[in-house]
Every structure is written in structure tokens, then in C-alpha cells.
Design goal:
Length: 319
């Protein structure tokens, strides 16, 4: 949408950027919602209470999936990806990103982290580049375990670290295909700034000088930029030969083609790989004729996905 037509979306963008943090606060400890629901709403000096649940065994969830109202997540792919991740680490996951209005050029694609368990740091590059690299070169990439905004800025812009952390931003995730938060990133955010991290995040989102032109990409940029400036860059889950986990490994065309294949007694091409790898897709609801058409399309896509999944992994039959 053109920037000059986004003015009435500004508050909606802010609310969208706040939603994951407020959901965490509500689920972790309703008491921590007081700054937003009680008299402390306008008191910026009153720190948000720390959630009482600090141990992993008390966590209300391990992972949070977030996206637009026309984002479809495929849980088999989500679970397959996340089984190797530690939810207690501060992960903000997406592999569908674009250059933000405050992203440094060149160098923006070096401003992202990679998962701790990828020994070679298999970030998104072509198979040709991956094959040409030695293990020593690959191990130079920052891993998710110790990766922060400061780590990335110090590595890529050693002479401009403060400006990189406080004025710039890393790549912006595309909310249409969604993103995934670990419980660890919310815990770390709440503990940041002397336990006032949630308030600091809100103040960043609601900064009085914010304008549509400051955040032309909408709520995705609000969220990622404020997380960046509080020390939490995005983590790219890595390379897959099928395309991105989010939005490419399992695209609309594969689900539209599937019934044709099934009518011939065949599974869709690369069905096992794509149904095991794809995490999400974007419906592009604005291109639908109506909300009803969009809802029916989602119902159709999920039905086709589940049908192929049942053929790939038959569920146990009850006697």
C-alpha cells in the first residue's frame, strides 16, 4: 500500500506489533498486564512486573506463531523444524525477509542470526556457494546462542556500533507468511533494561515521533525494529533446497495442483519433502473477491493439505 494511504493504519500497525508481547504477558502472569490494564498505563517510570513463571516447567507455552489474518501455518512442518530448537533461547524466527527503510546497505543480510544447532551455520545461500565454502569459513557466522544486535553490529560495523544498534535495523520479516517466537525471547525481553523490557518495547512502538514514513512497512517493521533496538535480531532458520520454509516450500500452486494428482492416483510431486518442510503460506486475501471467498479458500487449502498428509502418514484406525 502506498505510504500516503497508510495514515489510518498507523494505530493498527502499533497494536499488531504489541500483540505478541501482550499475549505473552497475559499467559505468563496476568499480574504483569497491570501496566496496560490498570492505573499505571501512563506511568512510564513504573516497570512492568516480571512474570512469576521463570522455570521451563512453568512456562505457559514453548513457541508462539504469529502472522496476518490470512497466514496459514502447517503444523507438521512447524513441529519438524522446531524439534531441534531450544525454546529457552531467544529465537525470533523467519526466513522471509526484506530490506527495511532503516536497514544498512550494503550489509543488511549480515544482520541476522542463525540457529545454535546448525554446526555449519547453514544460512540461506545457494547450493553452489555452500559447496564452495570450507567448514572454517562457515563457522565464522554468529550463532543464535550468543547472537545479539550488539554482536552483529560489532562484527559488521565496528566503527559504527552505537548507530547500528540505536538508529538502524536488520532485515524486516514478512508478516504475511508469519514468524515464530520462542518463550526464551519473551523472557529475555522482559528481563532487559533492568526488568523494564516490556515497557521499553511499548515505548519504542508508541514513540511520539513515529509516523507512517518512519515505518512504511507497517506492523512488521514496528515489531522487528523495536526488538532489534532492544538487542534481539531475527534468526534465519537456514537453507532448504525447496526454497524458504515460510511461503516457498509449500506454495499455493502445490495445493491447487494436488487434487489433479490425486484424481490420477498420484501424490503431488515432491509431496513428502514439501509436506515435511513447509511451515506457512500467505493467502493474499486482498486478491479474493470477499471475506467469504477468503475463508472458503483457507478451508479448501487446509482440507487438501490434510488429505495429502493422511496419505503420507496414515493415522491409526480405531476398531
Amino acid at each position: 500500500m502506498a505510504n500516503d494511504k497508510r495514515d489510518h493504519y498507523l494505530e493498527g500497525d502499533r497494536r499488531a506489533a504489541m500483540a505478541p508481547v501482550l499475549a505473552y504477558a497475559t499467559l505468563a502472569d496476568p499480574e504483569s498486564m497491570t501496566p496496560w490494564t490498570g492505573g499505571a498505563r501512563g506511568n512510564a517510570s513504573a516497570p512492568a512486573q516480571q512474570p512469576a513463571a521463570t522455570g521451563a516447567q512453568k512456562d505457559p507455552f514453548k513457541w508462539m506463531l504469529a502472522g496476518d489474518d490470512d497466514t496459514v501455518f502447517f503444523m507438521r512442518g512447524v513441529k519438524a523444524l522446531l524439534r531441534d530448537y531450544d525454546p529457552q533461547l531467544p529465537y525470533f524466527l523467519s526466513d522471509s525477509m526484506y530490506v527495511g527503510s532503516k536497514s544498512p546497505q550494503p550489509g543488511v543480510w549480515e544482520m541476522r542470526c542463525y540457529p545454535c544447532h546448525l554446526q555449519w551455520g547453514k544460512w540461506r545461500r545457494s547450493r553452489r556457494l555452500l559447496a564452495a565454502e570450507s567448514p572454517a569459513q562457515a563457522l565464522e557466522a554468529p550463532k543464535g546462542c550468543n547472537c545479539s544486535t550488539q554482536t552483529l553490529c560489532s562484527r559488521r560495523f565496528p566503527g559504527n556500533v552505537s548507530r547500528c544498534m540505536d538508529e538502524w535495523e536488520g532485515p524486516v520479516p514478512f508478516g504475511g507468511v508469519g514468524f515464530i517466537f520462542s518463550i526464551g525471547v519473551f523472557k529475555a525481553l522482559a528481563a532487559a533494561r533492568g526488568g523494564n523490557g516490556l515497557r521499553a518495547y511499548e515505548e519504542c512502538i508508541n514513540h511520539p515521533n513515529t509516523s507512517v514514513m518512519a515505518f512504511p512497512e507497517g506492523g512488521d517493521a514496528f515489531m522487528s525494529r523495536c526488538l532489534w533496538r532492544l538487542g534481539f535480531p531475527i534468526t534465519d532458520p537456514g537453507y532448504t533446497p525447496l526454497g524458504r520454509y515460510m511461503g516457498e516450500a509449500l506454495e499455493l500452486k502445490y495445493l491447487y495442483e494436488a487434487p489433479v494428482n490425486l484424481s490420477k492416483g498420484q501424490l503431488p510431486r515432491e509431496a513428502l519433502q514439501r509436506w515435511s518442510t513447509g511451515i506457512s503460506m500467505h493467502l493474499w486475501a486482498r486478491q479474493q473477491k470477499s471475506y467469504r471467498a477468503g475463508a472458503l479458500t483457507v478451508k479448501y487449502l487446509i482440507g487438501v493439505y490434510d488429505l495429502v498428509a493422511e496419505l503420507l502418514w496414515p493415522s491409526a484406525r480405531k476398531a
